[in-house]
């Protein structure tokens, strides 16, 4: 039996710390104005680290609060650590870029903090109302962050596109939730699972399709991916880096929890949805990125493809499948943060550059950066012996174990096609003539994230190195079943 917490809200302590910190920092910003931007950024990082400490030190047992609508278990703790790492790293490497661009506003770290609070709420949601509260707190913050560069038409356009399409997806999710409630008589995930035990009510399955559509938008999976390339390209680069990291972790964790805990009795029905979305995302991510000339658009299509690969593990519907999703998302987080740390440093004296051909001859002008980026791109392509290969191996193995042979074969073929555009960039860096002056030196935060990511990708493939990650992911996955 789960231990009784010291006080009723103890399981939500990390979220309370983040929310209280956001309120305090708004007050500091209101009193001191833009002069407080640096201080607020530092205090935001402290708040995220404090929340991370309490997440890690929470006991291993499953605990519920808020009448069972908020749950903390092994799965939630694992996903929250990934989300907090994504938020902290994105914030750490964005300060220099924002200062140079003249958009280092004190609101930026506060919005990141509020979005992170929403993500933590999403991960621990145990009913449809908590799910929606967390999702909207995250989304409202992200709409504003996307348009943070108010004087830039592209940034404003990115924010508006994300807002309009996000509102549409939220409406679909709410409609699905209302159908589920109507046909099962409960909003609790456990209650829904009991109501649908042994029979998949047609109306409830219809509602599940709408919920899947709303959540697929949040992880930018096909066919709800259309916002991703435009928002990644239009939003300031630090915002794109944040979008690619933390929100993806939280949305994927929410998707896994909803399907595994609320609909365990109708796996055959929802597996069809996941298989279709996974195949479509892998295919679009592989083929659409080939013609891209902008590095941020390419990373957008890359992220769509990677969400497809992660969904392959979920389609298995087993504890090993969920374990493979968690391992994949952890390795994807490292690869993405490392790559964006470099993209943030793509700057010449006249300003930032985003073209893929601006990387020409990088091996001659900045050899260490070129080798680090080569490691990250080879890993994103899934080329052994790097961690990206390990991630894909796990999800495909889970699919094969669940006898989803066609899905695994399509995934491997999409991976081969996708490798082309990563290797093309490596070829441009190492074999083309330099396209212009060398990039300005990387800022300290960017350098640390880039170096750590490049080293981790290699270290994770050393004998015995993936063991702790696998064990933690398996324990997290089993806590759902």
TrEMBL record:
<keyword id="KW-0472">Membrane</keyword>
<dbReference type="GO" id="GO:0005886">
    <property type="term" value="C:plasma membrane"/>
</dbReference>
<feature type="transmembrane region" description="Helical">
    <location>
        <begin position="6"/>
        <end position="29"/>
    </location>
</feature>
<keyword id="KW-1133">Transmembrane helix</keyword>
<comment type="function">
    <text>NDH-1 shuttles electrons from NADH, via FMN and iron-sulfur (Fe-S) centers, to quinones in the respiratory chain. The immediate electron acceptor for the enzyme in this species is believed to be ubiquinone. Couples the redox reaction to proton translocation (for every two electrons transferred, four hydrogen ions are translocated across the cytoplasmic membrane), and thus conserves the redox energy in a proton gradient.</text>
</comment>
<feature type="transmembrane region" description="Helical">
    <location>
        <begin position="36"/>
        <end position="55"/>
    </location>
</feature>
<dbReference type="GO" id="GO:0012505">
    <property type="term" value="C:endomembrane system"/>
</dbReference>
<dbReference type="GO" id="GO:0050136">
    <property type="term" value="F:NADH dehydrogenase (quinone) (non-electrogenic) activity"/>
</dbReference>
<feature type="transmembrane region" description="Helical">
    <location>
        <begin position="75"/>
        <end position="94"/>
    </location>
</feature>
<feature type="transmembrane region" description="Helical">
    <location>
        <begin position="106"/>
        <end position="123"/>
    </location>
</feature>
<dbReference type="InterPro" id="IPR001750">
    <property type="entry name" value="ND/Mrp_TM"/>
</dbReference>
<feature type="transmembrane region" description="Helical">
    <location>
        <begin position="203"/>
        <end position="227"/>
    </location>
</feature>
<keyword id="KW-0813">Transport</keyword>
<feature type="domain" description="NADH:quinone oxidoreductase/Mrp antiporter transmembrane">
    <location>
        <begin position="125"/>
        <end position="417"/>
    </location>
</feature>
<keyword id="KW-1003">Cell membrane</keyword>
<dbReference type="GO" id="GO:0048038">
    <property type="term" value="F:quinone binding"/>
</dbReference>
<dbReference type="GO" id="GO:0008137">
    <property type="term" value="F:NADH dehydrogenase (ubiquinone) activity"/>
</dbReference>
<dbReference type="Pfam" id="PF00361">
    <property type="entry name" value="Proton_antipo_M"/>
</dbReference>
<feature type="transmembrane region" description="Helical">
    <location>
        <begin position="402"/>
        <end position="423"/>
    </location>
</feature>
<feature type="transmembrane region" description="Helical">
    <location>
        <begin position="325"/>
        <end position="347"/>
    </location>
</feature>
<keyword id="KW-1278">Translocase</keyword>
<comment type="subunit">
    <text>NDH-1 is composed of 14 different subunits. Subunits NuoA, H, J, K, L, M, N constitute the membrane sector of the complex.</text>
</comment>
<protein>
    <recommendedName>
        <fullName>NADH-quinone oxidoreductase subunit N</fullName>
        <ecNumber>7.1.1.-</ecNumber>
    </recommendedName>
</protein>
<keyword id="KW-0520">NAD</keyword>
<feature type="transmembrane region" description="Helical">
    <location>
        <begin position="272"/>
        <end position="291"/>
    </location>
</feature>
<keyword id="KW-0812">Transmembrane</keyword>
<feature type="transmembrane region" description="Helical">
    <location>
        <begin position="160"/>
        <end position="183"/>
    </location>
</feature>
<keyword id="KW-0830">Ubiquinone</keyword>
<feature type="transmembrane region" description="Helical">
    <location>
        <begin position="239"/>
        <end position="260"/>
    </location>
</feature>
<keyword id="KW-0874">Quinone</keyword>
<dbReference type="InterPro" id="IPR010096">
    <property type="entry name" value="NADH-Q_OxRdtase_suN/2"/>
</dbReference>
<feature type="transmembrane region" description="Helical">
    <location>
        <begin position="444"/>
        <end position="462"/>
    </location>
</feature>
<comment type="similarity">
    <text>Belongs to the complex I subunit 2 family.</text>
</comment>
<dbReference type="GO" id="GO:0042773">
    <property type="term" value="P:ATP synthesis coupled electron transport"/>
</dbReference>
<feature type="transmembrane region" description="Helical">
    <location>
        <begin position="368"/>
        <end position="390"/>
    </location>
</feature>
